[in-house]
Every structure is written in C-alpha cells, then in structure tokens.
Design goal:
Number of domains: 2
Shape: elongated
Number of helices: 9
Mean pLDDT: 93
Keywords: DNA-binding, Repressor
Organism: Siminovitchia fordii
Protein name: TetR family transcriptional regulator
Pfam family, one: TetR_N
Structural class: mainly alpha
CATH superfamily of the largest domain: Tetracycline Repressor, domain 2
Strand content: under 5%
Order of helices and strands: HHHHHHHHH
CATH architecture of the largest domain: Orthogonal Bundle
CATH class of the largest domain: Mainly Alpha
C-alpha cells in the first residue's frame, strides 16, 4: 500500500469520526438541551478517545453550528426552488407552496429546532450562525422580489431588501410559535394567511 492509499484511508477514518461526533452531538443535545450538553458526553457517546472531539470542533457551540447546517438544509432547498412566475396567481401559488414547505420542514425537526431556539439565546456563536442563516434566506427573497418587480407583477416603489426582511422575520416568528406549540399546527391555515397578507401587499 503506497502513501496516497494510506492517506486516503486515514482521511476516510477522520470523516467517519467527525460524522460519529455529529450524530452523538445530535443525540446528546436532544436529550440534555444545549446548556446541559457537554463535549465529554458527546465524546463518550461517539466512542472516541478522550478529547478527540476537540480535534474536530473547538467547543460544543462549534459542533452545534455544524448540526444547524444539516437541520436547515431542507429549508435551504425550499428557499432555492425556482421562482419565475408569469402572473400574480402563479406567484401566489408558489409563495404558498414555499411557505408551507418551510413551516413543515421546521416541524419535522421540531425537537431539534427547540434546542436551536435555546442555543440562540445563550450562545453568541450560535446566534451569529443564525444571523448568517437569516441573511442567506433574506438575500434569496430579495432576488425573488426584484424579479417580480422587474416583471411588472409587484409594486416597484417598494424596497425589495426591506420587504424581504419583513417577510422572513414574520415567517420566522410564526415558525418558532409552531415549533414551541404556541399556535395550532394547522399548516394550511397558517400558510394561506401569511401568503395572502404578503402577496396582497406586494403584488399589483
């Protein structure tokens, strides 16, 4: 076996160890919550050597932000759906579909999203990560609004970036309310109300 093959094997082992730590982290965070979870618990559950977790992650905050990317992937996929409507009706139908899928994705990860909410409140690193996630969504929504404005479907005088922020923050708050059980899980009603409010104000 030559050096390149040995390196490849070592890299694969490192990737597997990292994956094991992330899986263990998810399990520990779900059981203990963010504040009570420790790297020692994660290391033990992953069956890795003492301190191995610190080779891959600076601390539990760092590991948690990696988990957040995985959790948010479904939502990124929803936000990344093509948006090129030719009519107001087409736009509304797509907005309604995306809004429902966004909320549904959060509910599918309900228990983990509760931990995310807790972590945002106590960790500056996680809060910064959430802000970068927000920025990614808002950027995409801004482009969608600019498209429909350019197409003559939406009111041109509106500031696309400002409307995008307002739309995302409204969805985010409702998403947290759904995850925390503060409003009923009637996704159809929630999605229809939000979408009609948004489309009714933005579109001509």
């Amino acid at each position: 076996m030559d050096g390149s093959e040995q390196m490849s094997k070592r890299q694969l082992q490192a990737l597997q160890t990292r994956e094991n730590l992330l899986n263990a982290g998810r399990a520990v965070f779900l059981e203990k919550g963010f504040q009570k979870a420790t790297m020692t618990q994660i290391n033990k559950l992953a069956h890795t050597g003492y301190g191995t977790a610190y080779v891959y992650f600076k601390n539990k905050d760092d590991l948690f932000t990696e988990l957040m990317e995985t959790i948010m992937q479904k939502m990124y996929d929803v936000a990344g759906l093509p948006f090129h409507p030719r009519t107001k009706e087409e736009a509304y139908a797509q907005i309604l579909k995306q809004t429902r899928l966004f909320m549904q994705s959060a509910l599918e990860e309900k228990e983990m999203m509760k931990v995310v909410k807790e972590a945002i409140g106590v960790s500056a690193i996680v809060k910064e990560k959430w802000n970068s996630i927000r920025a990614r969504f808002i950027s995409g929504i801004t482009k969608d609004i600019q498209f429909v404005q350019d197409a003559g479907l939406a009111i041109e005088r509106f500031d696309a970036a400002l409307i995008a922020k307002g739309w995302f923050y409204m969805n985010e708050q409702v998403m947290w309310d759904l995850v925390l059980g503060e409003i009923e899980e009637d996704l159809d009603a929630v999605s229809e109300n939000l979408s009609e409010l948004y489309a009714g104000g933005l579109y001509k």
